[in-house]
Amino acid sequence: MIDNPLVSVVVPVYNVEKYLDRCVQSVVNQTYENLEIILVDDGSTDKSAPLCDSWAKADSRIKVVHKKNSGLGMARNTGLESACGKYIFFFDSDDYVNVETVEKCVATAEKNNSEVVIYGLCDVYDDGKTSEKEIVTEKTVFVGDEVKNEVLPGMFTYSMGFGISSCGKMYSLKKIKELSLKFKSEKEIISEDAYFILELFPHINNVSVIKESLYYYYKRSNSLTHSYKADRQKKNDIFLVRCIELANQNNLSQDVTDHITARYHMYSISAMKQIAASDLSAKEKELELNMVMKSKVLHDSLTGGALRLHNKKLKLFYVFLKHKCYFACKLFLLLKRN
């Protein structure tokens, strides 16, 4: 066992001058000190870039990479290319972490010989309130087929209290590089994290879980946009098709594809809610909702076992949709707004 191995922390940075110091401070203050901290300035136009440079001058463990803007996934890849640690974290620059996050994850990985360590997240709101996402599984170590059959599907529906976010995990950098994995661009797809874990986790043999919330995820108050993006459902449909393709390529079970589909259903109803909450005219909303509700990919997805994974209300909504009861679906969306 290596004592105090080098750990890489990659932080993509884009126009977060208001939050960057809080994030970086939480990293440099880690009780585990053998770190390389890679700040990837993704073409920021505010004061984020000089703030990154100031941090590098203040702490020799910090390296800054300035690049043209290309999105979160590509910025993570830039950090990944520079990383040299035994383990690697990906933190978002408007979030922050418990000062013992790295120490606890490394100790757990070394003790259990784990290639991935998953830990709890805590949502943080503008008013300072927090909401912990409780990890509900009794197991703390998953080995062999348990990773593919329990952890992987569970991440897509939060059934064990943790999701697909790369920010909630510590990874073996060696494993990622062995597989030549890269993040996809979120500018082209929905959820770059989903593709990443579908390519990684079929090759992982040991996962540890820390039930404590070690990562603080900032939830911005304007998360529900009032400007619906017309290509949102098209991207949702592509997400499902490509994820199912990846699952099939890796010989994953029907249960995994059901959980992927259930997540797609969540994305789809989110798109519909955005339409309902948008500033579009009533006629435009009607046209956009019809386009989403009549998606062939969406209707084809309502024949499998994914519906069993939803709560009663969402299951009822998709049963209505399956039987083309569009008026009832629209009424459901209207009631959910009030």
What brief labels describe this structure?
ten-stranded mixed sheet; alpha/beta; 13 helices; 18% strand
Q: Overview of this structure, please?
A:
This protein is 45% helix and 18% strand. Strands 1, 2, 3, 4, 5, 6, 7, 8, 9 and 10 form a ten-stranded mixed β-sheet that branches.
Q: Can I get a quick summary?
A:
The chain has 338 residues and is an alpha/beta fold. It has helices spanning 20-28, 48-58, 72-82, 101-112, 145-157, 173-178, 192-200, 232-249, 254-277, 282-293, 296-300, 312-322, 326-337, and strands spanning 7-13, 35-42, 62-67, 87-90, 96-97, 116-125, 130-132, 141-143, 169-172, 206-219.
Beta-strand share of residues:
15-25%
Helix amount:
40-55%
What is the typical, i.e. mean, pLDDT? 93
Largest beta-sheet details: 10 strands, mixed
Q: What structural class should be given to the helix and strand makeup? A: alpha/beta
Terminal Cα span: 57 Å
Radius of gyration: 21 Å
Order of helices and strands: EHEHEHEEHEEEHEHHEHHHHHH
Q: What are the segments in which pLDDT stays under 50 over at least 5 consecutive residues?
A: none
The shape is globular
Q: Total number of β-strand segments?
A: 10
Number of helices: 13
Secondary-structure map with pairings?
Blueprint: E1 7-13, H1 20-28, E2 35-42, H2 48-58, E3 62-67, H3 72-82, E4 87-90, E5 96-97, H4 101-112, E6 116-125, E7 130-132, E8 141-143, H5 145-157, E9 169-172, H6 173-178, H7 192-200, E10 206-219, H8 232-249, H9 254-277, H10 282-293, H11 296-300, H12 312-322, H13 326-337
Parallel strand pairs: 1-2, 1-4, 2-3, 6-10
Antiparallel strand pairs: 4-9, 5-10, 6-7, 6-9, 8-10
Helix pairs in contact: 5-9, 7-8, 8-9, 9-10, 9-13, 12-13
